[in-house]
């Protein structure tokens, strides 16, 4: 009763004050979130602590193309509705050109990028550093029509989708016509401001400039149906389709769009990104690039050194299926481990038999190594590799994806293996029959490596008996009975029965591999590390004795390792085989600890053995089980 009732006006005044307080709190929170987002841009580009260069420079407007720069700044000021003055923009771009040591170039994409960055409303003190870091880290330096970047993109598009690549080439629609603006502005020329900002943010979060190629590939593949309908002589229509595709990308679509680009990035050999990264940064590799002449390449080049520096025949997440196109005789004189021979001279001499051999090879790959990418290996000489180029052209014409070749061929591969002393990567190597070894012996500059190979050649006889050439023969018309072929009543949707590779053989009398010679120049010693998923002590048995060692497993391969005498825990790699090549593992009832591993492949239902290892394994049961589980883990799931 003693309290005064508030009047109507006072009540309204009290509500209004509370509402205004809530609005102020909300506005403060939104501003804080916006500032956090802006800070993220500066943090990701590494410019948070950098001073503003515009605060201290000579202010001399003396570029060779200063007038053109000033005129373009007037246009940009109009686009920004004069929120930025022409002198301010001219100072910005003049200093930018001086910092990079270049003259201003019209239509290079800088204005569009600067416009998008200024629309982020970043703190003025950080705008120059953000623009400078973004353009130098993520925008290619050279996007002229003849630039190498378009050759790389052509090869990448062909690698992932040769059908659309072939069609665009038939339209005479070169990558420079439809990707120049994409690459020079990182899609700023084709997308809305909000979509562009979202794309850029995810892009710099990934920190990989090479993704610009895969983003462009996603646009092309999404427009594939429309592009394939474009007829010859109408390339302008194809360019228009792609420009419209980019402009239709909404903010909500950007994350999914980026995930697709990451998918194609993972399906690209990692060495491609590493070796051609300079195209994004413009590093000092120009002379080397001119020698490569990528505009004349038929498919992606894989450096030979990439195959010799890794423990796996792969590049990143990509595993290679190596096809050696040299003659059968050259292949038998030495070849890269796990490679398959396809003598391509028969393309001209015996086309029908070559077709049979090629079909056999493709059937084997489809059934055993379907996810692997084709890697074609030739001699490394333009004259001798004409037949290899025919095979590559055949694959491209058929629309076969994921085809690349070994740059420098077997010659370069042979040199790299010699330089790194990794002769275990060449199977059946014979210095007497190897022409490359004879050439190196006659050359004084390779004298050191010739001596090194001479020391290693003491083990070549043992290697020849242990490993038989993996060849898809041409001209052998003898047909063997397919014992594993299923009767039509027994198929039930599956073409062949799968026979277990693990058996007990009472009369296992395979010839034991040759005695172990002591290397004058030993193989590289490595530590028996945790990189192997399983290891088992064993003794490898030869005709004249045995050597202590280990069987080791990774997710995809089985290794035979020999212990290094006097150095506990250290081993040398004597053999390395893909688990998919394990044809049989047998043991004797009388000596169950003696395991015989047969390696090879199947062709037309017949097993061809390429290597045999006899190993005495104290824990033979556990070893066989581990190998079995590893093999089954690689097999595709059965049909439902």
UniProtKB/TrEMBL annotation:
The organism's place on the tree of life at top rank: Eukaryota
Localization: Golgi apparatus, trans-Golgi network
Family matches, as SMART domains: RHOD
A biological process term (GO) from this entry: retrograde transport, endosome to Golgi
Entries under Gene3D superfamilies matching the protein: Rhodanese-like domain, Ypt/Rab-GAP domain of gyp1p, domain 3
Domain Rhodanese: 316-422
Transmembrane segments: none
Entry keywords, A to Z: Developmental protein, Golgi apparatus
PROSITE patterns associated with the record: RHODANESE_3, TBC_RABGAP
Keyword Nucleus set for record: no
Gene Ontology CC annotation, any one: trans-Golgi network
Rab-GAP TBC domain sequence ranges: 47-207
UniProt keyword Cell membrane, yes or no: no
Protein known as: TBC1 domain family member 23
Organism in which the protein naturally occurs: Caenorhabditis tropicalis
